[in-house]
Amino acid sequence: MQETSPTETPYTALGFYHKISQLRADTWNALKRDLGRLVRLDDEGRAKNLVKAVDVKLTRLEIIEDYHAFPSKEDFRHLWSLFDREEYGLLEKVVRRLVRALISESYRRRHVDLSETDADAEDLETLDALAQLRRGHPASNSSAQPYFELLIVDNLSAPEEEVVREAFHNMRRPEDRFVYDVVTVRSFEDALIAVLVNPNIQACLIRYEFPYKSKYNLSALRSYLEGLSEQSLEHQSEAERSILLSTMIHELRPEIDQFLVTSGDVEATASRDIRHFNRIFYRETDYIEQHHTILRAIDNRYRTPFFDALREYSKKPTGVFHAMPISRGKSITRSHWAGQMIDFYGINIFLAETSATSGGLDSLLQPYGPIKKAQEYAARAFGARQSFFVTNGTSTANKIVVQALIKPRDIVLIDRDCHKSHHYGMVLAGAHVSYLDSYPLDDYSMYGAVPLKEIKKTLLEYKRSGQLHKVKMLLLTNCTFDGVVYNVRRVMEECLAIKPDLVFLWDEAWFAFAGFNPTYRPRTAMHAARTLRDRYRSEAYREEYDAWKAEFDALDPDDDATWLDRRLLPDPDAVRIRAYATHSTHKTLTSLRQGSMIHVWDQDYRQKVEAPFHEAYMTHTSTSPNYQIIASLDVGRMQAEMEGFELVHAQVEAALSLREQLYTHPLLQKYFRVLVNKDMVPLEYRQSGVETFYDPVTGWNKMEEAWANDEFVVDPSRITIAIGATGIDGDTFKNEYLMNKYGIQINKTSRNTVLFMTNIGTTRGSIAYLLDVLLKLAKEFEYRWEESSRPERKIIENRVHSLTKELPPLPDFSRFHAAFRPDPDGNTPEGDIRQAYFLSYDDENTEYLRFDNGELQAQMRSGRDVVSASFVIPYPPGFPVLVPGQVVSEEILYFLQALDVTEIHGYRPELGLLVFTEEALRNPPAG
What residues does the Orn/Lys/Arg decarboxylases family 1 pyridoxal-P attachment site domain cover (predicted)? Predict the structure, then answer.
């Protein structure tokens, strides 16, 4: 974003909005340093340079702070006044106080008057900073009123802005639950940049008429303003422009409460499509009415129904006569030996314990009170129609959804390298499984995701075989453990063109945070479902579909290219949007371990799914769910609605900073290579052609383009580093170097990669520590090489060669044996995994064959189909290489032989692979 001065001198202030908060903080700190040097400098020539540097930084900051309540526009006039009068000593003191207030966030708790220059004022900022250090974070001070900022969009003069700001300030009362300040902007574009760069904005009041264009060049908004121009809006009425702005604000930050102040026909405006406005005010409605309405809207998101009920329950005196001795802490407080639990956890966690059947609180199995309300709030926050809490992890959430939707012998198309819970879910449901292969990344021993063409091709096979009606669900992982993200909307749209009632289960275990960032959100299941529903209801889509259908009908329907090489559109009269998403809330948002959610956007849920879903939920949910997990899910939802945008924003910033250092540091590059888009997504799936989001010259300016257009993108908050050049495999590097030496914990490795995941708790200090550790390790590897003898260097070279050149190709799914195929003579690939799974329960049906001594290979050479009787899951990579009923192929065997991992579930080295006997395959029981 640029400001153009009267002399047309550009000052670059904003490039990529993901970096804005770091740019803001770093620029204020740099300004403070420059002023400190300036007031202590005697050299006139160097002083001139510093004065110019201060001028540039103040100009840059004034642009950024135009979209924040603190420091205010009045504060900036004070700064410029001191600068113009060359009172650099006083300016340095004011800036130092201002930086302290920003760091300690004291402006959230009290008014900071920068015109005060006495020692007491500085002491207050110092005490605030000290209090922050003692608490860890100001938000942990639960007694303080939560602070937010109100955005007012109106073409006001500077004096008018002060009048409005003062009017809202005068509405404050000590009894208010929240405290807020006011940000005013004067144009359509400024309103959008404000909600992007200022996470404190929680409410927006759109008033009267306002122009389209900002006085700044808002380059960061290119992707959001495409197709709009001042000319296209100049003929719109006040209401039309306000409604359009409201819609775009909702797309960027749906959590913001919006209000409209109109001077026109308020009744006519109210009858329009104003779904994103909480309320309409007519002209100068009493400020106190606006004040209370805004606070009430904020309170509606801030409430935590179950957590509040749990806290109230913990205060009640009760007599405990049910089967939980630990309830109310009784068995602990009376103990002479177990008191250390209270010392460690505190008493509240025990006061909040009770039996789920005692009537003290709501029931998760059949909620009617605070749990029901908490789940409704979760649906609002995540854009779902229904949401359900799960207290035993997403593995269980996945099984609930599968059992609710799939009957025995329904065909499910499923990503073969998905989480093992899905494979076991197929067993429990009795599904006929049709596995889909992801594209392989052989150089890094990992898979990407399933190409859309592969999915469409499989659906066409079922369509041509007359079995499309049996295909019930498509199950995919979005995003993958390694951060590969689907174009969810595109997948759903094209699959629905072939089968209009197909159900989608998107495993978003690692993607719960994505709904709170405007770049990530469009690739989430719930957002895609809502967007497609609205799209198919519009007249514009019907016209688009009619034109497409006329062109499509002129083509040869038996030619694969007709279906595979062009974009498909579903029939708006036939299509049904049926999408489910499972979230590991505890993995990427705030929740205790195993806190997960199921989100539903299914137009047929009430008619077809509600009863079986309830039964499946009852089947897999404990009758004694952990209330602490439920409370943490409730609080985690509230936090995501109130500050999810800010937290995810900071997470992405931290990840980009880490990537930037790893991209540019020569020694780090030598041993640690960050995998970028071109490494993890083949060119055929990168329609934008973007190879990396980062450019050393222009910075981070390509992410939105890729995320808007590509079939697959890489989540930049997940940093996969190739470590083959170190000569150390991923598992050893994880345990011996990162964990044992430096206490750095990571989840995932492959043979030659390690994955570093940032999250909403990652700080800049954490990033600095990781970089310091990696630099120390790089120096250690450098010294190791320099001090090695010739034989030792040869050993290192061999290890590097093995990890970078001798990587076994990842095997595709082979096939189900004919004994487990419902139609052995057909052309479709599905298999009855349940039949194979339970056939292995009888010992006489299975035997062990070793492949380390050639026994299994000899059987294969003799012409025998060797068929796995169990899941075989090596860690890493952590997905089933074999499932029950699958034929062992030469490629799979080669892969297993080449693995140098010690942990392979389903394989016993002393015995071999568990396989079916030939007799069992000749006479399998009926499915």
Answer: 304-529, 580-764
Strand (E) or helix (H) holding 185 = strand 179-185
- Mean residue pLDDT of the chain comes to 88
- Give the Cα separation of 452 and 828 in Å (integer): 18
Take residue 320 and report the two structure tokens written for it. 């405990």
Closest CA to 699 of 655, 656, 756: 656
Q: Is 636 helix (H, G, I), strand (E, B) or coil?
A: helix
Length of the chain: 927
* E strands in 194-345: 201-207, 216-217, 257-262, 277-282
Alpha helices in 722-763 (DSSP H): 730-732, 740-742
Residue 440's nearest CA partner among 497, 482, 479 is 482
Please give the C-alpha separations between residue 517 and each of 20, 56, 259, 643, 687, in angstroms, as whole numbers. 14, 31, 22, 11, 22
Q: Containing H/E element for 582?
A: strand 578-583
The set of residues, in sequence order, having a beta carbon less than 8 Å from that of 584 and lying 6+ positions away, is 393, 394, 509, 510, 512, 596
CB atoms within 10 A of CB 489: 18
CA distance 86 to 269: 52
pLDDT value at residue 224: 54
* pLDDT, tens only, 839-858: 999 999 999 999 888 899 99
Q: Residue for token digits 């606006």?
A: 290
Q: What is the DSSP letter of 902?
A: S
- Predicted TM-score (pTM) of the model is 0.92
569 neighbors 497 (Cβ within 8 angstroms)? yes
Give the pLDDT mean for 498-518: 96
Please confirm whether the linkage preceding 924 is cis (ω < 30° from 0): no
Top-ranked range on mean pLDDT: pick from 124-133, 134-143, 152-161, 472-481:
472-481
**3-class secondary structure, 183:** strand
Lowest mean pLDDT among 96-100, 694-698, 740-744, 886-890: 694-698
